[in-house]
């Protein structure tokens, strides 16, 4: 049996010492001031000396009280950190962290997964739109989806989800203006993540359109938002925009063409079997 004073009394002392007030300690612990004083008295009787100097102006720590306060601060900080680490670890097995660009999240992942995970509560999905391939190497995400083909590592499995089909997309209103010759030149909305998509599409389609202006966005999702505002056209993969096309929010006047790029899934192969099963369900859902 450990030779330490009652832990509840130590906790009360720690709060009272920090506030230098029995009243504030009582308020934080939802106790009466008399109950706080009683806990402090229990502690003082255990030590055999006073921890506070009491006066009409309030309370002040004695020298021994100050020493005990430092010990309590250190001990409770260690306990608090260890408990928080354990709490996080206890939730980790129920969490799957997905590394994926914001464009893929907004236009592909979330629309397909919402109905699936509204009924399946076995795991909690967390998304990291700032993730990179390094994130999966560091263990910061469980799997990573990217349009970039990266050489395999021994502990990372790579799977081609599908070859991309790309096409020019615009708003219905913008399309009408183009085909009615209301505008002679188009504004091209490029994204940094798929900057060369326009050049590849122009080559594959053999369609010549006069670009009078360019606006560059750091993400495809921002370029697509600008398309919906009738600011111009962009090139996007079919699987990213097909939901919005079906809803009439976007239009692909020239259809889609197979291209050289693809979308790849990178998964850590040291995941638990439970996580692997759920990830398989996720991938099958988004591929459907």
Automatic annotation (TrEMBL):
Protein origin, superkingdom: Bacteria
GO biological process, alphabetically ordered: DNA-templated transcription
Domain HTH lysR-type: 5-62
Keywords recorded for this protein, A-Z: DNA-binding, Transcription, Transcription regulation
PROSITE patterns per UniProt: HTH_LYSR
InterPro entries reported for this sequence: LysR-type_TF_proteobact-type (IPR058163), LysR_HTH_N (IPR000847), LysR_subst-bd (IPR005119), WH-like_DNA-bd_sf (IPR036388), WH_DNA-bd_sf (IPR036390)
GO MF annotation list: DNA-binding transcription factor activity; sequence-specific DNA binding
Family: Belongs to the LysR transcriptional regulatory family.
Protein name: DNA-binding transcriptional regulator, LysR family
Source organism: Xenorhabdus koppenhoeferi
Lineage summary: Bacteria, Pseudomonadati, Pseudomonadota, Gammaproteobacteria, Enterobacterales
């Amino acid at each position: 049996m450990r030779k330490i004073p009652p832990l509840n009394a130590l906790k009360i002392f720690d709060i009272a010492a920090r506030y230098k007030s029995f009243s504030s300690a009582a308020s934080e612990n939802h106790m009466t001031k008399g109950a706080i004083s009683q806990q402090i008295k229990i502690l003082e009787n255990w030590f055999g000396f006073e921890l506070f100097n009491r006066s009409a102006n309030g309370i002040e720590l004695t020298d021994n009280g100050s020493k005990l306060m430092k010990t309590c601060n250190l001990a409770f900080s260690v306990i608090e950190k260890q408990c928080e680490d354990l709490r996080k670890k206890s939730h980790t097995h129920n969490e799957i962290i997905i590394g994926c660009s914001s464009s893929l999240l907004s236009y592909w992942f979330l629309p397909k997964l919402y109905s699936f995970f509204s009924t399946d509560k076995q795991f909690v999905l967390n998304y990291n739109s700032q993730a990179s391939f390094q994130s999966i190497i560091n263990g910061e995400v469980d799997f990573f989806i990217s349009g970039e083909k990266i050489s395999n590592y021994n502990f990372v499995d790579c799977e081609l989800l599908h070859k991309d089909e790309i096409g020019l997309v615009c708003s219905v209103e913008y399309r009408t203006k183009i085909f009615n010759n209301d505008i002679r030149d188009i504004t091209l909305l490029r994204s940094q993540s798929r900057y060369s998509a326009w050049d590849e599409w122009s080559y594959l389609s053999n369609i010549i359109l006069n670009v009078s202006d360019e606006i560059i966005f750091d993400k495809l999702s921002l370029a697509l938002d600008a398309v919906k505002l009738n600011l111009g056209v962009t090139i996007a993969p079919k699987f990213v925009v097909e939901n919005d096309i079906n809803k009439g929010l976007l239009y692909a006047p020239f259809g889609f063409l197979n291209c050289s790029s693809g979308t790849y899934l990178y998964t850590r192969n040291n995941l638990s079997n439970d996580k692997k099963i759920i990830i398989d369900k996720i991938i099958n859902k988004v591929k459907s």
